[in-house]
Amino acid sequence: MQFGRSYEEFEVGATYKHWPGKTVTEADDHLFCLLTMNHHPLHLDVNYAEKTTQFGKNVVVGNYVYSILLGMSVADISGKAIANLEVESLRHVAPTFHGDTLYGETTVLDKTESRSKDDRGVVYVETIGYNQDGKVVCVFRRKVMVPKDSYLQARGGEQPGRPVPQPDKNWPGPQTV
């Protein structure tokens, strides 16, 4: 499985459909709210949501929706990133509810070689997240600094830092057939 891309592998206009989707449970949403100290009753209190909101039920906290989609994109977009430089925009365009399944896809809008270091570049992308009905719920744009192939080769290739298994009494080493 590929984990991220080098600068040369990105093409402007390419779209990466992230897989698999993630079904958001009430427990997921509540835990995220409690971990981040977002105690708004819209997310945590069913009675409040039923009686006082236009939706009549709890809405998943937006930062969790964003975090899921960002995480989904890592294997395709930023798995080899040197740095996440900025989130230019983040829009929650429709609510997500407990039980919804989120899917995401990212389109490469632009790419620019670094002016200060010739072994990297910046990729500008837009990610959209949508639910099981295809309804777009979140859109964000970000810039990611990614390595060029030369950067990766200088640091150990595709999986830098990966150790080599060492034979011992429990494993004699690779067997030839």
TrEMBL record:
<dbReference type="InterPro" id="IPR029069">
    <property type="entry name" value="HotDog_dom_sf"/>
</dbReference>
<dbReference type="Pfam" id="PF01575">
    <property type="entry name" value="MaoC_dehydratas"/>
</dbReference>
<dbReference type="InterPro" id="IPR052342">
    <property type="entry name" value="MCH/BMMD"/>
</dbReference>
<dbReference type="InterPro" id="IPR002539">
    <property type="entry name" value="MaoC-like_dom"/>
</dbReference>
<comment type="similarity">
    <text>Belongs to the enoyl-CoA hydratase/isomerase family.</text>
</comment>
<protein>
    <submittedName>
        <fullName>MaoC family dehydratase</fullName>
    </submittedName>
</protein>
<feature type="domain" description="MaoC-like">
    <location>
        <begin position="12"/>
        <end position="126"/>
    </location>
</feature>
<feature type="region of interest" description="Disordered">
    <location>
        <begin position="151"/>
        <end position="177"/>
    </location>
</feature>
